[in-house]
Design brief:
alpha+beta, 15% strand
Length: 97
């Protein structure tokens, strides 16, 4: 019976954390970000290779990261996306020769 109640308490704690926090893996490690709304979306997100399109699909995560002072991670993805776009434009310009 003790194992059952221990499992119930552990499960309740895990569900609570999953509903109230994002577990985010970035370039500098893993950290927790408080969610803006209580739901089970984006419980664990690996943002190391996120592009601008990925951030558009995860707007609540982006808002939560800005609110919790982790917005520097958004800047990295924006800059990387900008660089990729510029490289593809330059490659297309020179490929037309």
């Amino acid at each position: 019976m003790l194992k059952f109640f221990s499992g119930v308490v552990l499960g309740a704690a895990l569900i609570y954390n999953a509903m109230h926090f994002h577990l985010v893996r970035g370039q500098n490690g893993v950290f927790m970000v408080s969610k803006e709304t209580s739901n089970l979306s984006d419980v664990y997100v690996d943002i190391r290779n996120f592009t601008l399109d990925d951030w558009r699909q995860h707007k609540p995560l982006a808002a939560a990261m800005v609110k919790s002072d982790h917005s520097e991670l958004l800047d990295d993805a924006t800059l990387a996306g900008f660089r990729e776009n510029m490289h593809s434009i330059v490659d297309r310009l020179f490929a037309q020769d």
